[in-house]
Each structure stands twice: as C-alpha cells, then as structure tokens.
Write a structure and sequence with these properties.
Glycosyltransferase, elongated, Glyco_hydro_76, five-stranded antiparallel β-sheet, 11 strands
Length: 478
C-alpha cells in the first residue's frame, strides 16, 4: 500500500520518465547562446591539450566521432571518410538528453572538397555560470542524404572523474533550477535525491552541487502546508532527514528547525490504535512500517543534534519499542509493509526500504543511548535482508515493482546499510555493498552514467529516482 502513490508538489504535475530522447526534426531550434567557461564555445580543437574518443557511429560509409578535451571540459565532432558536402555537428542537452532545443547543431559545418576528415570547433559541455549540467553527442549527415546518425550522449570527466561523482553529475542533469526539485520523479523522491547529493559531497569532497541545498529549500519551503509538510507522514520525515543532512553539511540552523517542525507535526499522528504508532497519512487509515521506522530515525537523529534534548529521545525510544512489538518484523526477520485492520502483520511485500530504514533508526538510537543491543538487533535484520534470495535474486538487490516510488527504495536501503556498516567495527557489509556497486556499474549504466532500476542490468531507461538510488549505492560502497 505504501508503494502506491508518488505525490508531487502542487503545480508540478507528474513528469514522465526519461526514455529515448525525442527527435527535434521539423522543429527549428533556437539560436544557441555562446557559453564561456574556461574558454568560450567554438574554440579550435587544435588547441586542445587532450583528445579522447568517446564513440564512433557509421552512416553511409562515413564515420561520425565524438571527441573530448577533458582538460578544458569541451568536445567536438569529426566526420571521417568524408565526401564534399557531408555535414557534422554537435547537440548539447542540459536535461539528461531529453531535449536540446537551443543546443542543436552546434558548430554545424560541411566538409569541403579535398578533405577526408573534417571537424567542428570545440564546445563546452556544461554552463558553469548558468548551473547547466550538460551532455554532448556528435551527429552527421552524408551529402545528398536525409539519413542522420548520432552518437550516444556523453560528457567529459569534469565532475565525473570516478563513478561516485559521475553518478551524482548524471543526477544533477535532472535537477530543475526553476522548481528546486528533480524532474522525472516525485516529491518525496526528490528529498532522497537531495540527500544522495549531500552524501556525495561528504564522501567525495566535490562541492560543485552544493548550491542545490539552499535552492531546494528556498523554492519549496512554502509548498503544501509549509516547512515541507504534506498529508503523508513518511514524506514529511524524508524531508526532515534531508534537512538534517543539510544541517550536518552546512551548520545552518534553519535546516535543523525545519526538521524539528516536521518531526513535531508527525508526532501528532501517534495514538493508541494498535497500541501506538503513527498513521501513514492524515487519512488515518493505515499504520505501516516505513512511516514508523522513519519516526524513530528522525526523532533519534534530532536528539543527537540538539544538546540537552529529552523529548525527541523519548519519542524515539517509545517508537522503537512499539515497532519491535508490532509484529511487522516477520519470522524471517524481514519487515513487511504494515498492519491490517486487525492490527496484525498484513504480510505485504517486504520492500527493500522497509528493511533499510530500521537499520538507520537503530544506528541513530544507539548513538543516542549507547545501548549495544540495538546494533545487535540491527545486525540480525541486516543479515536477514542481505541474505534474502527474495530481495537479492542472483545476489543483486532488486525490488520487483514499478510506479513512481519503487525505484527509490534500493537507494534508501543501501544508504541505511552503509550507516550500519560504519557503526560496526568489523564492517561486515562492505563486500555486499561493493558487489552491488560493481555490478550496477558494469551492467546497468548508460554512456552518460545514468542507471536503471535493475542493478543486474540491462540498462533501458533512467529517471531521477533510479539515478539517486545509484548515487546512494556508489556513496555506500565508498
């Protein structure tokens, strides 16, 4: 039940997932503004200190190649075996290859007679001043033909020098500067995407996307009911945890205060039905695992950041005691989705994120109390989920479900498992996390470092939920 909705901020609609990019044929592209980073667009490739071949495609006996100058974060297109009049150009996209309206046919040029190889000038991949995170592809059309061939989308190694930063950069290609959210996914997923970016800053030291923290906050603080509060208590908690991550990164107290406002709002939904616990939503028709495990994590995390607190600690303790006795943890030590009308385990799908959040909650509660039994319980739960063939067919984590929510689940799980792994002196889940990351990187990655939902592959499509899960994974395997 808690995997059946993906609420969006009012007015944003429900964006479609990123699949094959649409053609711009028949739609005259607008003029591309000249971008100047280290150098301005239309720089001579002869001046490039580096020359890396990204991909070559064939069309009509010609070869169209995309080449990069990684030193200066620029690229150019080349046509080989050229005949007079053959065209070659670049396309540039700032939304993960969904569109390239004003970035179409950059450097469009035709091969003159007597040249077997012809090339465009160099163009920037990104727009540093405009916060545009870009991709390039090379395209060509033989003289007299209507057939166009293009390479896949690629970028330079700028902010993508290794798999953690490359995954984060691909995620930021989906960040909407106008809304402060991530296109192609929902409201609560964007909270997790922002958390993944913040964690990436922590583990890699790359601060290029730090601007997203304040921008997201400023553009969305008054959405819904204000302070990132809406009708779903798990959504409120996700945003609360995102702002605690932001507080840890920046020290800005407004993020801590917003997390407190969210936690206080959620606490209003605790009552005696089923012996305790919070309701999933303002409708008060379901008590489930995700909302209640997040309740424990958020309150314990607040206690750990507020000197002298006792209120949030007591809520976290009470929340965990209720969760442990609720029977949502089944006989296999996996967490089912929630409780039925009779306050019994409903035996619905043990989604991966329902296995993960209790681990993070117990890590925070252990930090607050020093109670070693909490880590012992967390280890028992983690052993069950990492060893489950249902959750890990062939040894690779997989949630069997679609919709807008499920692609975020695995990212939540591995983020929490990594937190537990760091808290245990023997680091027992390092090999598991690295196996997931190595497999996804090898089998489930596009040319632009985008990832799909099944980490065992093959790659078919990506969106911001799938991508933040991959960023969480790469962060977790650090």
């Amino acid at each position: 039940m808690s995997a059946r909705r993906s609420p969006h901020r009012p007015g944003t609609g429900t964006p479609s997932a990123t699949g094959a990019p649409p053609s711009t044929a028949g739609t005259p592209p607008g003029a591309a503004a000249v971008i100047c980073n280290r150098y301005c667009d239309a720089r001579d490739p002869a001046l490039a200190p580096a020359d890396r071949l990204a991909q070559t495609v064939a069309v009509g006996g010609r070869q169209i190649s995309l080449r990069f100058n990684d030193t200066d974060a620029m690229g150019w297109a080349v046509v080989s075996a050229a005949q007079p009049g053959d065209e070659v150009w670049l396309d540039r996209s700032f939304d993960a290859g969904v569109s390239w309206g004003t970035g179409s046919r950059l450097g469009n040029t035709a091969a003159p007679a007597g040249f077997g190889t012809w090339r465009t000038m160099m163009f920037n991949v990104d727009d540093w001043a405009g916060l545009g995170v870009g991709l390039l592809r090379a395209c060509g059309r033989p003289a007299g033909s209507s057939t166009i061939a293009c390479t896949s989308w690629y970028r330079t190694t700028w902010n993508a020098g290794e798999r953690r930063t490359a995954a984060a950069t691909a995620l930021m290609q989906r960040y909407n500067l106008g809304t402060g959210l991530f296109d192609t996914t929902g409201w609560w997923n964007s909270a997790n995407a922002l958390t993944a970016v913040i964690d990436n800053i922590r583990v890699t030291g790359m601060n290029s996307y730090r601007y997203a923290v304040a921008r997201t906050y400023d553009l969305n603080r008054t959405a819904w009911q204000g302070d990132f509060i809406n009708d779903y208590n798990d959504d409120v908690a996700w945003w609360g945890l995102a702002w605690l991550a932001a507080y840890d990164l920046t020290g800005d107290s407004r993020y801590l205060n917003t997390a407190r406002a969210g936690a206080n709002h959620v606490h209003r939904f605790w009552d005696s039905v089923c012996g305790g616990g919070i309701w999933w939503s303002s409708s008060k028709n379901y008590k489930n695992a995700i909302a209640n495990s997040l309740y424990v994590q958020l309150n314990a995390a607040l206690h750990n950041r507020i000197p002298g607190d006792s209120t949030y600690l007591q809520r976290a303790r009470t929340g965990w005691t209720w969760f442990l006795n609720s029977k949502m943890i089944n006989g296999a030590n996996l967490v089912n989705d929630g409780l039925n009308a009779g306050c019994a385990n409903n035996n619905l799908t043990p989604w991966s994120y329902n296995q993960g959040v209790p681990l993070a909650a117990l890590v925070e509660l252990h930090r607050a109390t020093g109670d070693a039994s909490l880590l012992t319980k967390a280890r028992t739960l983690a052993d069950a989920s990492t060893g489950s063939s249902f959750l890990n067919p062939g040894g690779i984590l997989f949630d069997d479900g679609g919709g807008g929510d499920v692609p975020s689940f695995k990212g939540v799980y591995v983020r929490a498992l990594a937190a537990l792994n760091r808290a245990l002196p023997d680091r027992p889940y390092t090999s598991y996390l690295r196996r997931q990351a190595d497999t996804a990187h090898a089998r489930d990655r596009s040319s632009a470092d985008s990832y799909d939902q099944p980490w065992a592959g093959p790659f078919q499509r990506s969106d911001a939920a799938r991508q933040h899960s991959a960023v969480d994974l790469m962060n977790a395997a650090s």
